[in-house]
C-alpha cells in the first residue's frame, strides 16, 4: 500500500495547488459531490466572516481568541460530518491521505500543548499579583517591601521565555510546507476530501499563527497565507487575514503594546501600584494607592478569568483532534490489511512531545 510521495513544494510559491487535485475544475464531480463540497466551503466562508474583529485591536484580546478557538472546533466537527456524508470508508482511503491526516493532526496536538503550556505559565504569574494585593491591603512598611518583591517576581516571570512557543513556530512552519497537496487519481470523493481538509488546514494555521504571535509578543513570524481563488471561501479568508495581520503589525510597530491586551492592562495596573509600594511607610493610607490597587485587582481578576476560559476551549479543540485520530485508528484496526501497514509512529503517545 505504501507509495513514494512526490516532494512537497513550498506553499508560498506561486501557482494553484488545485491543478493537481481537480482536473479542469470541479465540473469533474457529480452533482451530489459538488453540492457537498460547495456546502462545506460556503460554511467555511461564513465562519471566516465571523472571525473579523469588531474593533481593530480586538484580535489581541483573549475574548477574540476564545471565539476563534470555538470556531475551529466547529470547523473540525464539520469535516467529520463531511467525511460521513461522503460515505468513503477508510479502507478506500489512499495511504498518502492517511499519512497526511496523521501528520497534520499530531502537529495540531503539539500546538495545543504549547498554547496550554503558555496559559499555565501566565496563570502562575497571577499568584505573584495575589501576593502583591495581599501585602498592599495590609498597609505596613514590611508588607510594602514584600509587595515590591512580588511585583519584581511577577515582572521577571512574565518576561521569561517559553521554549515550547519556539517549538510551536517550527511546527507551524512544517504545516505550511505541506499545503501544496498531492495528486489525487481516480477518486472524486478523494478530491472532495482533500480539498475540504486543505481549507480546514489553512484556517487552523491562520488562527494558530495569530495565537502564537499574541503569546510571544512579536509579529515577526506572523504568517501570510495565499489561497487559490477557486475556493468559495477564498475571498472571505483574504479579507479577514489582510485586516487582522495588518492591524497586528500596526499595533506592534507603533509600540502600543507588545503583549496580549489583557496582560498589557494588568502590567499598567502593576506600574501604577509600584511607586507607592516603593515609597514604603509614606504611602500608608494614601488614596492613590487604594485606587491603583483596585485597578490592578480588577484587571488581574478579569485576566485570570479569561485565561481559564481560553484554556478550556483549547482543551476542547485538543480533544476533537485527538478523537478524530482515535476514530481513524479504530477504523484502520478493523481492517487488518490496512492497519498492519500503518507505521507505529502514528501512535499518539509516541508523537506528541509534552
Tally the beta strands.
0
Order of helices and strands: HHHHHHHHHHH
Radius of gyration: 24 Å
The biggest beta sheet, please?
none
Distinct helical segment count: 11
Rounded average pLDDT: 83
Considering DSSP H and I runs of 4 or more, what fraction of the residues is helical? 55-70%
Percentage of residues in strands = under 5%
Describe the structure.
The chain has helices at residues 31-51, 62-86, 95-138, 141-159, 163-176, 188-216, 234-253, 261-279, 287-333, 336-339, 348-351. With 354 residues, it is an all-alpha fold. The chain is elongated.
Structure at a glance:
The protein is mainly α and 354 residues long.
Please name the defining characteristics of this protein.
354 residues; single chain; mainly alpha; disordered N terminus; disordered C terminus; 11 helices
Write the SSE topology.
Blueprint: H1 31-51, H2 62-86, H3 95-138, H4 141-159, H5 163-176, H6 188-216, H7 234-253, H8 261-279, H9 287-333, H10 336-339, H11 348-351
Helix pairs in contact: 1-2, 1-6, 1-7, 2-6, 2-9, 3-4, 3-5, 3-6, 3-9, 4-8, 5-6, 8-9
